[in-house]
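does this look right to u?? magnesium ion version
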Amino acid sequence: MADKIEVLLTEEEVNKRIREMGEEISARYEGQSVTLVCILKGAAPFACELAKRITIPVEIEFMRCSSYGNETQSSGVVKIVQDLDHPIRGKHVIVVEDIIDTGRTMNYLLTVLSEREPATLELCALLDKPDRRVTDVQVDYLGFEIPDAFVVGYGLDYAQKYRNLPYVGICTPGNP
Ligand code: IMP
Ligand code: MG
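got this back:
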């Protein structure tokens, strides 16, 4: 049986919301510049779209972590697989993430990044599943709050598939 994908947020809805988030960030940091830290791989499509909607100067950095777990759940043990190329000390940093689920990944990463003494450190996430939270995480800019379902598309994957879908859909895996 094939995986079933049901549209949750259309491409138009997602892009409209990202445009608003870009405007909010531009207004908040008016006259300054921001460093977007894109968390690979899932946040890449979101970070690209967001960066295009920010009207103040932007630097884009990438970071990749692995959170030892299975395909649909993180374990809380986070490892930085690829670190930033440049120091962030004194910069206005916004971490850009695809989805906050248990909150463990971001809780760890924000602690690590804050130790590097950025001027400010905020979190921007496309999606939030608050029902599943086990660790407190403050999301400063949020695209959408969604129910406790496994979603794919707009960067999010199921076993590395479906990142390229231009919308967000609820995925019900079929048999392998
Ligand atoms: P957390 O540490 O539990 O908050 O896990 C966050 C990470 O788990 C995200 O960056 C995603 O990579 C992955 N994740 C959590 N929920 C989903 C989902 O519904 N679809 C795809 N990936 C997810
Ligand atoms: Mg991720």
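The chain has a mean pLDDT of 94. idk if thats expected tbh
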